[in-house]
Model the fold of this input.
Amino acid sequence: MMAVNRLGWCRAMAVAAALLGVAPAVAAEEPIEIFDAHLHYNWEPKPLYQLKEVLELFKKNRVTGILATSRPNIGTHALMDAKKDGLWVVPFIRPYRIRADIQTWFNDPASLDLIQDEFKRGYYRGIGEFHLTGKAAATDWVKKTVDFAVAHDLYLHAHADDEAVEILMGQNPRAKIIWAHTGFGLASDRVSDMLTKYPQLWGELSYRSGITGAGGKLTPEWRALFERYPDRFLLGSDTWINERWVSYSDIMAGYRGWLAQLPPAIATQIAHGNARRLFAAN
Ligand SMILES: [Zn+2]
Done:
């Protein structure tokens, strides 16, 4: 009896949906595809999740592309070697051997050796994520790194404050920079000025504060930024510690929560369209 009633109800809904020109509720929409533009698959000495588990996690979250880095770079090699259907891996060279290199790489000739050596694999699209604060960016070794990137059409993935980003751009105005965390808590007006001043700067939004306020609602200033620069933002998980892997699904759900408040065309650009355009093969 129940079954008959439910079936009748479903038919009625389907007819109503067809009349309204919308898909029946049973054909639930798939969540928006995400390109994760800040992914570390660190291997120190082993990753938290095996490769198979990581690939399943991407699939479960409908993450169809990743900007992949790893310390050391063997995690990235593993992701590339997996050649997983439905996952586009865009590999970047991490200039670090060990975690402590974060503090010294910009004055260490060994970093550039590492980058040049790793580059020989032939598949890399960028260098990073690397860390720079203020005038630490103003070294010969950083300039050589920036010049190497420009010479080989590589993006830079910079965890840097606005001062360091300006120094990098000054070292070589042809640099293309993915700005990890988009300045963290930097005022949105200043972010806007940076995007205007540097057309080859794109903001990656992990750990970026101020995007949402009470109840997960998009703030007016960030809505305005997304509407003004829909082609300049990327999403990222930043799995720099195991906790980020454990909360990976929550991080992606958090992004989808505010993406849903944007016009669909803008949400699509930020979720995956911008990354697809940036990293499309020439
Ligand atoms: Zn990171």
Summary: The pocket of zinc ion is lined by residues 38, 40, 129, 180, 238, 240 (CB under 6 Å). The radius of gyration is 21 Å.
